[in-house]
Amino acid sequence: MGEQKKLLTMIDKALDAASERVHELLDDKKDMKPAKLERKLRRAFKRKQVAEGTAVGITAALPGPGTIAAAGLSAGQYGLYLTHAARYVLGVAALHGFDIDDDERRRALFLTVLAGDEGMDILNEGLTVSSVLWAKNALTSSSRASLSSLSGRLAKKLATSGARAATRTTLGRMMPLGVGAVLGWHSGKRLAGDVIDATKEIFPGKPSYSSVYRPA
Q1: 209: helix, coil or strand?
Q2: Structural contact between residues 109 and 89, judged by C-beta atoms closer than 8 angstroms
Q3: Which of 11, 46, 57, 139 could disulfide-link 180, Cβ–Cβ 3.0 to 4.6 Å?
Q4: What are the E-state strand segments in 37-177?
Q5: pTM beyond cutoff 0.85
Q6: pLDDT tens, residue by residue, 65-107
């Protein structure tokens, strides 16, 4: 299986699980104001990402077997990152009226977020929409064929540049003498911040009760 196909498989698995969790959360917190729930999702995502990044670094600082343990934990770190990121992105998307049960649209959304500025540039190619909500509108109104093509381009880019970045981050976290813990903290914070910033660009402003997507 190619790297691109592996990445899409991981992403679809994360999105499936995240969609179910978000619906449960919306139902459980239906009396909470959407803006407050959005802040809650953001804080939880930051906290989990920073904690996991630091944990890998601390494990790597242990002598001998610690480095081996860190290598094993780091191998699954990207999967955990995708899981937590998907919950945050789909949670915010739902609060802003985006249909998180449309597999093609949510995949294109998530890949755009993961690719950051490059993802936004690819999404913007060929579009003439100038509204502040252009990104959300593009993902909502584009045909499934267009979204599938977009996802393919984004996945290809992430499978290469994303893999190189992940390698650098993992090696940094595994540095001994506690240095890895510090770098792990910073890398976790940066990864969360990148996702949060990209999500804000697609869904600017505060969500309102009228925009919340509720399944029939």
Answers
A1: helix
A2: yes
A3: 57
A4: none
A5: no
A6: 444 344 444 546 677 888 889 999 999 999 999 999 999 999 9
